[in-house]
Amino acid sequence: MKIGVDIDGVLANSLPLWVAELNNYFNVNKQLNEMHLYNVLKTYEISQSELKLFLKHRGQYLMKSAEPVAGASHYLSRIKQQHEIYIITARDKRYQEETQEWLKKHNLPYDELILLGSHDKKEPCLERNLRVLVEDTLEIGVQVSAAGIPVLLLDAPYNQGTLPELVFRKHTWDEIYQAIVHGQIGAAVKGSSRPAGSNMF
Ligand SMILES: [Mg+2]
């Protein structure tokens, strides 16, 4: 089966790094639980051009310096033995090199790396016929699941709340792995309104 996997907040523990760098650069003291990677502008009350300048200085560093999420390499490698991995991220294409290096450094295997430069993952997931997306941003999970693709949402302070049908909260990579190998994904979709005849595996 074809599996989509996000980077920041799913493979990379990016939040502490971003908060530290943003706090330092903008000279504020935001806490982890105040931060939403999906909306840095709102959290830090900064403009698009301020963010652009920040990324010019710290972007490359941010893209290659996060610690991996616990269990990500172990379980992604196991999943890769039986499935195709599509790493699909909102990161901009200009960070391709840093991103590839980071994935390699932390032994995170994949078949294709897709840098979108936007948060719109619905079309790219549909185009590649992905059967599940592992994601941490609830807004993206809502959008992708509405297109009939199940989403495994890795729990984070910024993605709390009620989940729509086809979005399943997972707390660890072990839980993500169990859901994929034990067929929770297939079962969920068979029970949904997905068109008849669609082949889950
Ligand atoms: Mg993410």
Automatic annotation (TrEMBL):
Its EC number is 3.1.3.-. The active site is at D6, D8. One of its GO terms (molecular function) is 5'-nucleotidase activity. It comes from the Bacteria. GO terms for biological process: deoxyribonucleotide catabolic process. Keywords: Hydrolase. The keyword Hydrolase applies. Belongs to the 5'(3')-deoxyribonucleotidase family. This is Nucleotidase. It comes from Pelotomaculum propionicicum.
